[in-house]
Specification:
By secondary structure, the protein is mostly helical. It has 2 domains: 350 residues, no CATH class; 117 residues, 3-Layer(aba) Sandwich (D-Maltodextrin-Binding Protein, domain 2). The protein contains 25 helices and 5 strands. The chain has a 5-stranded mixed sheet with strand order 2-1-3-5-4. The protein is globular. The termini are far apart.
Length: 583
Amino acid sequence: MGGSPLDALDSVPGGDGFDQLTRRVVAVALVGLALRVALLGGRVSHFDEGRVAWWSMHFLDTGQFEYRYIIHGPLVQHVNKFVFGVVGPSDFTMRLFVALVGAALPLSALLFREHLAHDEVLGVAAFLAVNPLLVYYSRFFRSTLLVAAFSLVAFGLLVRAADERSFRYVHGAVVLVAFAFTAKENAVVYLLCWAGASALVVDHLLFRTGSEESGVDWLVDRFPDEDDRSRYRSRLGRYVGHVVLAVVLFVAVAFYFYAPRSPAPDAVGLWQGLTNPTQFPTVVDRTVADVVDGFEYWFGGSTEPGCDKENLVDGYLCYLGRSLETLRDYALPMMVLSVVGFVTERYARPEARLLVLFAAYWGFVSVLGYPLGTDIYGGWIMVNALIPLAVPAGVGLALVARWVRDSLDDDAVSFALAALVVVLVTGLVATSLVTGVYTNPTGDDNTMAQYAQPADDFRPAMGVLGDRAPDHEGPDVLFVGERYVRESPRRDGLEPLCTSISKTLPLHWYVTMHDATGDCARTTEGASETLGSTDPIVVVAPASHSDDLDPMLEGYERHDARLRTRGSEAVFYVDRRADTTGG
């Protein structure tokens, strides 16, 4: 028998060079970069964005960090601690890391160049760069795009490892999988999707319709003979070494990001464990316990029906319906072309390419599966499906492009149909980009805008805090009303501790961004007492309290805003009388 894949992995690959295809993919990626950074800070922070950004600032300000599974993986906190420390906190800098990862994602199409035609590689890159849903969530401080991107690149590196027979790509894939696990816990689901897609690909290989060789015969022929087995035994140490290195790389990356941090010399933290070896086992135990607790929370609990339904089936169908609605609104061309690409690959080619089948299986099962595992709907769950579906969609787009090219030499009817398809695809993508991402990113009719996205921009009111006089005394922000204020303050967490997080986020992020202080009054009577002794710059309350607050805040300018895509009306009172310039 010939050389085995294991033997071939020992060789070192050569480079492809910066050829024409690479330059074109880079150009596509630059378009994606422009789409992601333009007006990046224009949308007011979502509930989840504000919460994770607050904890990133807490890490920067205090040096304390621990894995909090409720806000998902720790990677973004570590990255944004650095970003905020260098360029300062803002909605733009908060989203910058995710935007840059999303912008670089089209470059991953080059990893599949040995299996796809050049126009298909460009098609994959184009969908990763300009699909409205992927652009929207590349401009969103949430880890879903990160785990999907890292997983796609890791998969591409494994494909490259098989193509170029190099273990270095395997180790690169392991590092990317580790980053995926530090981004979000659902990286586990990606491994399950890969296992399922692999099983379907193997079934495709073993189903030998029309061949004189059965699937079993085909499989037996690929078992190593005695000479191969002897060679494997002689190289067993090398292979074991690569396995050990892969495990070490994965554990090192995961441990670095999940391990706690603290500036206190006697605390349980990563640096204390590294500088004092006797404390290292304690740090490991703490880290492992935190990770186990987090993954048990996300995967070990019972599944709730969700979507305001009484049973799991109805809840699933509700979430699936909403997911399909989002795909219809912002990914219809990509979904249609992914089906075209898959069907053509599976049934119209003499020998289907396993890469295209694998990516299609991975993506289609994600469309059906993720609505089952979610408890609160967000359009971001479809990011997990669209990123692998970019491969069959790119194949489908290349088919359309060839059809258009060939129609130039055909009859007028063929050309008209081809032109109509191009206009429809281009028009749908462009319209969805403009309206869904830029002009209406927070509207209730935007199915990408999750409920906890504020519909109105209250930042002009909160922005006054950044211009306050340095000697301003008392709280800078006063929260009023039982809806916003707890009966008793929390022991720790998002400041001000007296607020109800579920009702007032993302306001905490803007209080912290401007290094302001806050206080609370559960009743308007309590607010009156506080206002009698202090002069807060901003007063925030549910709109239902405005009739009582308007008379006592006559010197304040009133702003109305919704803290969610619908409802949750709030009033912001800004003291324009105060000297906020410090002059």
